[in-house]
Amino acid sequence: MTSRLKPIVGLLLWGAISAATAAEPNVIRGIEVGQREGALELEIRGSRAPSYSVFKLQDPPRLVVDLAGADVSGVGSPIQVGKAGVLAVSTAQYKDERSAVGRVIIALDGARRYDVAPRGDAVVVRVLEAEAVGAPAAAAASSPAATAPAAPPASVPAAPASSGDGHLVSRRVDEGPGGTATRITGVRAAGAQLVIATDGEAGRLEILELRDPARLAIDVHGVASAPRAPVKVRGAFSQVRFGRDSGKVRVVLDASGALPRYEVKRVAGGVAVVTSGASVASAEPARKAAPAPRAEPVVAAAPAAPTSDPGLARIADVRFASAGGGSRIDIAGKAPFVISRPDARTVVLTLDGAKLPRAMERSLDTTAFHGPVAMVSSFNQPQTGQVRIVATLRGSATDRMVETRDGLTWTFTEGGDAAEAAAPAVPEQAQAADAKVAGFAAEAPAYASSGAPQARGYSGRRITLDFHDIEIRNLLRLIADVSKKNIVVADDVSGKVTVSLRNVPWDQALDLVLRSKGLGKEEMGNVIRIAKFEAIAKEQAAKAEAEKARIPLIPLKVRIIPVNYARAADVASRVKDVLSERGSVSTDERTNVLIVKDIPEALVRAEGLVRNLDTEIPQVLIESRIVEASSNFNRQLGVQWGGNASFTQATGNPTGVAFPNNVSGAGAAGQSPNQGTSSTPNYAVNLPAAIGQGSGGGIGLVLGSANGAFNLNLRLSALENNGVVKTISSPKIATIDNKEATIGQGISIPFSQTSASGVNTTFVEAKLELKVTPHVTADGSILLKIKATNNAPNSSLTGSNGQPSISKREAETEVLVKDGETTVIGGIYTRSTASKTASVPFLSKIPLLGFFFRSDTNTDDHTELLIFITPRILNRQSATAAAAASN
Cys-Cys link to 773, which of 710, 785, 819, 837 (CB 3.0-4.6 A)? Predict the structure, then answer.
């Protein structure tokens, strides 16, 4: 309910009743409740004579008294009454930067009649008996006239209601017949007559004269809607305003000066207000009223959107057509509108509470149709929720607005009032007629992708031009209207041009038109000057000569320019290129500054160049990981066996023959190693594995006779080695953009050489080293030139003097890496496998038994090298900010 009361207060109080007459607020001291002459009486006492407005609200029923410029904060609220139809009385205070309103709310037990009248410094509200069943709501009079004798006719000015009311001069009621009107559709001003147009017969009218300032208010009961925007008029009244309330609409006519003598009459289709004795009989129904004079605005009878709809009426299209020698503008959509003529060649249609699609905000050049309208422009006014359509006329013309089924049709006819009277009416089917559409329009953005390829550098709004022999000055005026640029055309620019361009930027269209006519342009801020190429070239040449002649006369100045991130000597060579012939530059190495001497213009150029060059250089941290992983596997299986046999007298087993009487046999493959066997194993097969302390294992077996004549020695050995080695090197280094950086760690191995001159010792580097040169690209990536080396001594391979060899691992490449990302720049994978067998010929080939005549060795070695690089920009934000500032 609060949201509903605020607009009512704003329109009824601040629109119909002016702000408080005194700067000091009217302090309400209290509210007294009593009974007099059979009615409940509430006396609202203030510090001075009150200015007030009264209205009723429903659901629940309430009577509201708004006191302009009053302060009710000192009144205790609520006041419980509970008699004579009044339940309670409460107060509320409203304030803004313009004024204050004190509100007194009287809660009723139902529909009640009431009477409000001023009494000195008080307002007296008398609540009467309940309203009769079936009586119209308007019968509850809200003025002193409700209990007074019959009011005089509306045409006769009434006497002042009370001298105690600072604003209300008089109030009278015209009950009239039962009204059928439900909305106010517009206002038509015709000289001394204003017609308030309605969609039917007006019902009960209340006419109020108000002062400070002077205005006339007419409450039209039974009406629910009216135009939203005020209507500017001329004559005795300056404007007409509308305020909506429950069950009625208040029409406020603001007087241009003192309130004139007036007459309020009911006419067919509305209410007429006639001033200065004008004839009321001439007022025709609002829908068929004679055309207003050109200087007077016209408010249309188009139906307004329902007040409950918070949205705006949609105007789908605005099209121009040539119709029977005249001009026609078809508007797809309806809204309350006002037609005004700010000058003789311009007619403005304002649609209230409406919105136009963006694609329809355009200008139509209609000069090619040779009709009364030369141009039509349509655009939105978002601040006021209005759409404006401006028609520029070629000469004298009259216009007529006709409401059709789907919108409005606005016709123009050349000539004066007589020609307008003779103009044929436009039928409702006019929109279906085949119309010639004007040849200039701003294209919708949806067509941008289908247009012709555009040269880079054109960014203006896309337009379509289709003209035959159009004056180039008129074409330039159209382009100026679209581009919102000021265009100045030289006097010698003339002629006609034929163009057919679709969906191109306006600045490209302008260049094409100028080139076709041998014209050039100069842009100075928001102004474009157009002249012939020769004239512009001569002006530029003259300007250059004058500038050249002026330079020797300009006194030289000295400026010291500090350099922060570069060497001043390096920047000085660049600065020389922007100095004049008289300029010079020197440096101070101690303070790293430039000392520039030249004219002021050259000094500005030098400072700009230094500011662009002297930016913070990006710093890059390069992290490298060199990972080495190696694994080796070695397996050996060996066998040793042998013995001895003796056939001698010593052992007691001679051969028994004369020769040989003694025979001895023993293995001869070596005696060591012999762990696990006899001290003299006499191996016949000696193929052991390379076992020893900390590696491998063996088992031995000895078989022999008691007298030692026969001995058998057997020994098995096995070895298996499995190793994994992983080495990670992680060098890091930081450097600036485009500067090589090197980091290394290792040893220097001495190598001695003996010659006739003596012993010479040289050192060979065996180290881990990283060389890198970074370059930061514009998109934040890093281009790296990298050389990674990991050289190490290899003791397994030595020289003649025992010096170890050098195992080299190197990678050199260029890669592009994003900031903070990791990439693998290279890798080396090596695998070495070997299988070796030592055996006794022939015997090792015997199945199964051949095992005892051979030794097997298997090796498998893996080596892997990977190099990872991760660059990071250390000062990315500051470097980016410095680069942006230099641009």
Answer: 785
Assign 20 a pLDDT band (cuts: 50, 70, 90).
Answer: very low
pLDDT at 585 (0 to 100): 92
Task: Identify the CA nearest to 89 among candidates 21, 17, 32.
Answer: 32
Measuring CA to CA, how many Å separate 824 from each of 738, 745, 774, 821? 22, 21, 16, 10
pLDDT for 877: 62
pLDDT value of residue 6: 43
Within-domain flag for 732? yes
With CA atoms as reference, report the closest residue to 768 among 741, 747, 789: 789
48 and 90 housed in the same domain = yes
Residue 819 is assigned to a structural domain of this protein: yes
89 touches 102 (CB < 8 A): no
CATH number at residue 385: 2.60.40.3470
Helix (H, G, I), strand (E, B) or coil at 394: coil
Q: Are 79 and 89 in contact (CB under 8 A)?
A: yes
d(CA 68, CA 103): 9
624/246 Cα distance (integer angstroms): 82
Burial of 598 from C-beta contacts in 10 A (0-12 / 13-18 / 19+):
buried
Q: Which residues contact 240 (CB under 8 A, 6 or more apart)?
A: 187, 194, 196, 230, 231, 233, 251, 252, 253, 254, 299
Determine phi and psi for 439, rounding to 5 degrees: -95, 15
Cβ-based neighbour number of residue 806 at 10 Å: 14
Rg (CA), the chain: 55
**Cβ proximity of 493 and 531 under 8 Å:** yes
Whether 519 and 532 have beta carbons less than 8 Å apart is answered as yes
On the 0-12 / 13-18 / 19+ scale of CB atoms within 10 A, 644 is buried
DSSP 193: E
Element (H, E) at 607: helix 600-613
In the three-class reduction of DSSP (H, G, I as helix; E, B as strand; rest coil), residue 431 is classed as helix
- Residues 530 and 597 occupy one common structural domain: no
Q: Which two tokens stand for residue 55?
A: 């209205």
Same domain, 530 and 573: no
Query: DSSP assignment of 467-517, as one string?
Result: EEEEEHHHHHHHHHHHHT-EEEE-TT---EEEEEEEEEEHHHHHHHHHHHT
Least confident of 38-47, 186-195, 201-210: 186-195
Q: At what angle do helices 600-613 and 876-886 cross, to 10 degrees?
A: 160
Q: How many domains does the chain have?
A: 6
Residue 111: partners with Cβ closer than 8 Å, 6 or more residues away: 61, 130, 131, 137, 140
Handedness of CA 356, 362, 363, 364 (dihedral sign): negative
Say if CB 478 and CB 467 are below 8 A apart.
Answer: no
CATH number, domain with residue 510? 3.55.50.30
DSSP class per residue in 526-590 = TEEEEEEHHHHHHHHHHHHHHHHHHGGGSPPEEEEEE-SSS-HHHHHHHHGGGS-TT-EEEEETT
175 lies in the same domain as 254: yes
Residue with the two structure tokens 């679709």: 502
Yes or no: say if 691 and 697 are a contact pair by the CB < 8 Å rule: yes
In this structure, what CATH number is given to the domain that contains residue 220? 2.60.40.3500
Rounded Cα–Cα distance for residues 653 and 778 (Å): 103
Residues of the domain holding 244: 168-275
Select from 518, 548, 578 the last residue of a domain.
Answer: 548
